[in-house]
Design goal:
This protein has helices at residues 24-33, 48-56; strands at 10-15, 41-45, 61-64. With 65 residues, the protein is an alpha+beta fold. The chain has one domain (3-64): Ribosomal protein L30/L7 (Ribosomal Protein L30, Chain: A). Strands 2-1-3 form a 3-stranded antiparallel β-sheet, with no helix packed on it. It starts with 9 loop residues before the first strand and ends with a strand.
Amino acid sequence: MAANQSNNGKLRLKWVRSAICTPVKHKRVVKGLGFTRLNQVIERPDTAAIRGMVAKVPHLVEILQ
């Protein structure tokens, strides 16, 4: 089993761009995902709710493999 297959059902997300000049809704989505600082990498379950949050701020967050 490969190392990248060990986290099935998880998304690795990285906050790559500041939310300073973004609408308040975008700031709340970033905070709701659990980010606290720029360039932070977090893991979240691969659910429709999390994917929807990421879809709202694709210019601020990237999905890592």
